[in-house]
Every structure is written in structure tokens, then in C-alpha cells.
Design goal:
By secondary structure, the chain is α+β, with helices and mostly antiparallel strands. It has 2 domains: 139 residues, Methyltransferase, Cobalt-precorrin-4 Transmethylase, Domain 2, CATH 3.30.950.30; 217 residues, no CATH class. The chain contains 11 helices and 25 strands. The strands form 7 sheets. It has a 7-stranded antiparallel sheet, with helices on both faces. Strands 1, 2, 5, 6 and 7 form a 5-stranded mixed sheet that branches. A hairpin with a 6-residue loop joins strand 15 and strand 16. The radius of gyration is 25 Å and the shape is elongated. The two termini are 29 Å apart.
Length: 427
């Protein structure tokens, strides 16, 4: 609950309920009876390791919280005090999520500090002299990182990045080589494109089948994956994906099509011979969400078009699915979202249904009747964010705003951020 619940939604009784579960301290969790004099040591150590939460106001016995934690004396300046400590004593500064919750009498309070694994580590204290990491040992929860340990920290971070990039490369390769069934009339077409290996009913096809079309690759993943975070039994359960899928603005993932086991998770794919569009979706045990789809619309005057509204809807839906699934499994680390759109030259950008209010004037700013072409052969966009930004509706829209702005730039157009916000407000 304290790991994944939106920080602004946590209340006093949530802490009492969390403590009643008797979750023992570890590398991700620390109880403090009072505000410690060296709070910066614990916070920086968590940021340098795996992240975690600190609950202040809770007594513990050998790392196990007390049955009825009393809290600390409530004061309106507690959050400001914590923020000042962490921003002035840690380099580079860390700004974690902080929540002060008080009881009904407003005389006792708990402080929850939620720290994400940092992409700026190592963080140091004492005038940049000391760097700590979490050990997971209750007796000695933080240790100084010496030169050997610092090399280990960099090496571990490097391995996490390599794991992330290799996993994404494998997912892309999987999406390019999937078994699909084609009707007889399309077998010759595919063979002519030299994308099929034989003439059986089930052919291995390499996407995109038609090189004149464009496809979109979308991924959401932990920035620093260490190992599996989703149980295979959950992934293999249709109920799990059905309950966590997003339903607005589009259904994602599409659970009408069966998900099948893959080497590290589950996948689903569809190909339509009539329209020649396709999609491939995979969710794996490392917490990666991957989706590849054809985004070309029927040629108009010899040019395929790309619907910008469809791209926005897909990304928003994937973000909402990610929010649901990470909340369900209790993951609270940092994330990366990537969107790549290929083969955009000679494609028209379709802005149907997209009108933007013009600031300080009447009327609408619309590109619906303009013929706008992409200026580059591909669009690549990525953003790092915290799980809290997913659960916060406004922050989730900020992520999409960044993508929309990049799409317009690639079309040689500029739209003010406020105009995009107004457009997305009810979307």
C-alpha cells in the first residue's frame, strides 16, 4: 500500500494498517521512531541502491514495526523540514515523495518518504565525501561505498541498462518473426515480397509485410531492470490482463485475441489480409510492455496517411495499462517510455478531429484541411518518469504532451503547450 498508493492519497490509518502487516525492514524499507539526525544517509543510500520507503514515527523491534505505533508530534512545518534536509545535504540533490499524515486530533503524525532508484547516482553526503548504499542488514543497513563498491555500483547499473536494451531488441526481433495464417490469395503476394519462408498454411512472416507502410513501436519498461517482477502464473492468467487492461480511450491490450507463452512472458498478435495491418503485443516477467502495430491508413492520391489522433490514443491507453499493471504487482521504480515510428517519408500526417483553441483570440486552430508531410524518415521519442507520474492524471498527460509536441515538430509545425493541454483535457 505505502509503496504504490499515490502519495497524496495516503492517510494516517494507511500507515497503521501497513504496520499491522509486520513487514520487516530490508533494503527497500526502514522504520524510524523520530526524525534521525542523519536522515540524508538513509535516503541517499536507498537512491543509490534500489529505492525504498522510510516511515518516520514507527518504533520497531529487530526491524519489525510495533503493534500500535505512536507517531511523532505533529507540526505544520514537518514536510518543509524534511525537504530542506535532503536538498541541502545530498549531492546531487534528491527530491523524493514526502507525505505527512496526522491523526484526527492533529497531535500525532507519520512521515512517509518514498525514494526512487536514482538515474543520477551515486549520491553523496558530507560535502560530497561519502557515498552509501543499502545492505539489507538490519544491524548495519547502510555501508560506505569504497572504490571497489563504487565500481560494483557502476557495473551493476551498466548491466541493468544492457539488460534493458537487449530485452527491447529481443522483443523487436520477436515482433518481426511471428507465425500467422494467411489466406491463399495473399500467399503469392507475401512470397513475392520475399517475406515468407514456405508455402504452408502457417508462414513465418517478417513485419512490416509491405515496406511502403509505417509501423509504430511502443515500449514501457523499468529503467534499471534487475530480474523478474511479474510472476509467470499472473501473466498466464487471462483474468490478470483482463482486469489490468485500459478501456479508454482504447482497449489495451486487446484481450479478445489469445495471449500465448513467449520465452519470457506472453504475447498476442493479429494480421488482417484484407487491410494488411497488424499488431504484436508482449508483456514479460521483467515488467516490459511492448507493442508494435501498423499505423498506415489506406492510400489517398498515392500517399499513405498517419492518424495523429490514433497515435495519441494508443500511447494514452498503454500508459493507463502500465499504471494498472505496475500498481497491481507493487512496482514503484523509475520507468522509461519509448515510441519509434518508422518509414515516414512521403507520408501525410492526418489531424482529423484535432482542433486547438487559439490563446487570447476567438476561433479554432485546425490543420484538418492542410496537407502536411513528415520531414524525417522516422520519429524517435523517449521519456523517463516515476510510477507516481503514471498514477497522477495530470503528469500522465504531460508525458503525452511531450510526444505530441515532437510529432508536430517533425511535421514542421509548432503548437503552444497550453493549446495541446486544452485539447487533451477531455480526451
Amino acid at each position: 500500500m505505502l509503496f504504490t498508493k499515490p502519495i497524496d492519497k495516503i492517510i494516517f490509518n494507511d500507515v497503521l494498517q501497513f504496520c499491522s502487516q509486520k513487514i520487516k525492514e530490508g533494503s527497500h524499507l526502514d522504520y524510524k521512531e523520530q526524525i534521525p539526525s542523519k536522515l540524508e544517509k538513509t535516503v541517499s543510500a536507498m537512491a543509490n541502491t534500489f529505492g525504498g520507503i522510510i516511515v518516520i514515527g514507527v518504533e520497531d523491534d529487530d526491524g519489525v514495526p510495533a503493534d500500535d505505533p505512536k507517531g511523532i508530534n505533529y507540526d505544520t512545518g514537518l514536510e518543509t523540514k524534511i525537504t530542506a534536509i535532503l536538498t541541502s545535504r545530498i549531492f546531487p540533490p534528491i527530491i523524493p515523495e514526502i507525505k505527512v499524515v496526522h491523526n484526527d486530533k492533529k497531535n500525532k503524525a507519520f512521515i512517509i518518504i518514498r525514494i526512487h532508484q536514482s538515474n543520477l547516482s551515486p549520491h553523496s553526503i558530507l560535502n560530497r565525501k561519502l557515498v552509501y548504499f543499502r545492505t539489507g542488514d538490519i544491524a548495519d543497513p547502510e555501508e560506505i561505498i569504497d572504490e571497489e563498491r563504487r565500481s560494483w555500483l557502476y557495473e551493476r547499473r551498466k548491466k541493468s541498462v544492457e539488460l534493458r536494451e537487449s530485452t527491447l531488441a529481443n522483443l523487436e526481433e520477436m515482433s518481426e518473426n511471428v507465425e500467422i495464417k494467411f489466406s491463399e490469395e495473399y500467399k503469392e503476394y507475401i512470397a513475392n515480397l520475399k517475406k515468407a519462408e514456405n508455402n504452408n498454411d502457417s508462414l513465418t512472416a517478417k513485419f512490416p509485410l509491405d515496406p511502403s507502410r509505417s509501423d509504430l513501436l511502443l515500449s514501457i519498461s523499468p529503467i534499471f531492470p534487475e530480474g523478474p517482477i511479474i510472476e509467470r502464473d499472473k501473466l498466464n492468467s487471462p483474468e490478470f490482463l483482463h482486469e489490468t487492461k485500459s478501456k479508454h480511450p482504447h482497449e489495451f491490450p486487446n484481450t479478445d485475441y489469445q495471449f500465448k507463452p513467449s520465452p519470457s512472458g506472453v504475447f498476442s498478435t493479429k494480421y488482417s489480409p484484407q487491410t494488411r495491418d497488424y499488431w504484436y503485443t508482449e508483456i514479460n516477467e521483467l515488467g516490459f510492455i511492448f507493442h508494435r502495430t501498423d499505423i498506415s491508413i489506406t492510400p489517398d492520391n498515392q500517399h499513405y496517411t498517419i492518424s495523429i489522433l490514433d497515435i495519441i490514443g494508443l500511447v494514452l491507453s498503454a500508459i493507463r495499462f502500465a499504471e494498472n499493471i505496475y500498481k497491481e504487482i507493487g512496482y514503484f521504480g523509475m520507468l522509461e517510455i519509448k515510441v519509434n515510428i518508422n518509414n515516414l517519408l512521403q507520408k501525410k500526417a492526418l489531424f482529423r478531429g484535432m482542433s486547438f483553441p487559439i490563446s487570447n483570440s476567438e476561433g479554432q486552430w485546425s490543420f484538418e484541411k492542410e496537407v502536411i508531410h513528415f520531414l524525417r524518415p522516422s520519429l524517435e521519442w523517449k521519456r523517463e518518469f516515476t510510477i507516481n507520474e503514471l498514477t497522477d492524471q495530470e503528469s500522465g498527460r504531460e508525458i503525452v504532451i511531450s510526444l505530441v509536441r515532437n510529432i508536430f515538430w517533425d511535421c514542421g509545425r509548432f503548437i503552444p503547450e497550453d493549446a495541446i493541454k486544452d485539447f487533451l483535457r477531455d480526451y
